[in-house]
Amino acid sequence: MKFFMLGIGGVSMSALAVMLKELGHEVVGSDERFGKGVEILQEEGIEVFVTGQDFSGWQNYGGGEKREGERPCKEVFFQIKKSIADCDIVVRSAAIKEDDAQIVLAKKLGKKIRQRGWLLGQISENYEKVIAVAGSHGKTTTTAMIYEILKMAGKNPTLHLGGYRADDGKNFEIGGTEFFVTEACEYHNNFLYLKPYIAVVTNVEKEHMDFFRTFENEKRSFEKFKQGSRFVFDNFGGIKAKNIRHDSQGRLKFTLTCGDKILMHLHMRICEEVNTQNCIYAYLVAKKLGIADCIIKQGLQNFAGVGTRFEKMKCAHFEHVVCDYAHHPTEISKAIASAQKIFKGKTLVTIFQPHTFSRTQSLLPQFLEVFEKVEHPLLFKTYSAREKESEGLSATQLAEILQKRNKNAKYFENFASLKGFLENFSSSNTILLFLGAGDLPQILKAEGFVE
């Protein structure tokens, strides 16, 4: 079959595109921007049309004169039009709106249009045992940990990940057909397309209110996900992490116990204490699959982490720079606490890029509670993703409200102004903590601020 994928460069979509090709399908797609996902797809020989923005100005793909501010060239426009016309199924990410011109065209041509979650569900049916990790926080890291253990055990698992592994930079791995380890996202109920052999629910917090509307609706969806799974791990089952500490390089050390029994001592390659919980879930899944403790320990200690999960970056201007994906107040609070503990005695400067306007509005009290206690809370222009500013609160508005509680709060519209302000701090006695699920880490690299 021929697939056309809208938003193909997204971290999940790009992995699914590679898997479709591996299964023998023809795949092509479009994305607004060039990023890591597009780079991976090009390396895999999958054609991607980078538009620069959507095609809303091209009325019904009429091919008229380009309007002011529109970047796609006519050649790209006609290639996309032909690819959609030739495809059997159009797959869209959640970021693609109903009024997107590519969707409008696909409907006009009578094409089947499916959600990303549907495609993940279809691909998962090719595997004997689906291991799906859901939750408001920690699912990417837990998924990658489970994969690492299964790989260490010689199980040859296939991986679909919502992040990029730190050791090889990949968000997928094509393995055998017995085990399919996947991250299961709750947004738009995408995880309900899966029928897991083992499901993990790391936690459930108020999130994605632009879709769920109420926390009760969200919790009901998670219950449906669990009910559709054969085995479920949604608590620690009596296992605890004790004697938690860090070595001289900030790497995590702790002991897993069950009652009075010591299960294993772990010396990880990653830093944040919250990873003790992710390790417990990975341990529980591995034990359910009959993997020995010695192999589980090797897999966990071999785990190098996931990109932008408390990732230490090389920077010519500052000695200590960390990028973390945290975009929910709970995650942000834990990332800040880790930085304060690992870099004790240093000045902490926190730079947060809000991810979506609706999340900022729905979780405003929690955001204010976290940042009013931060010494230097700096806010960067909102990463809008799928939204318009009218759908919630912007970073500018968040900064204005926060300044009433914390006079050190500041807003920055662009990286040049942010960099100028950061030059006021000591390069050796300051820790820069960049937070958010937006494009700020890519901006830092593009500007040559970090490697």
What can be said about this structure in brief?
The protein is of the alpha/beta class and 451 residues long.
CATH architecture descriptor name of the largest domain: 3-Layer(aba) Sandwich
Q: Which fold name is given in CATH as the topology of the largest domain?
A: UDP-N-acetylmuramoyl-L-alanine:D-glutamate ligase
Distance between the termini: 40 Å
Q: How does the major sheet shape up? A: 6 strands, mixed
Strand content: 15-25%
Shape estimate: globular
Count of the separate structural domains: 3
Q: What is the total tally of β strands?
A: 20
Output the structural class: alpha/beta
**CATH H-level superfamily of the largest domain:** Mur-like, catalytic domain
Give me the Rg, rounded: 22 Å
Number of helices: 16
In which order are the strands of the major sheet placed?
8-7-9-6-10-11
CATH class categorisation of the largest domain? Alpha Beta
What value does the average pLDDT take? 93
Uncertain stretches? 54-71
Fraction of helical residues: 25-40%
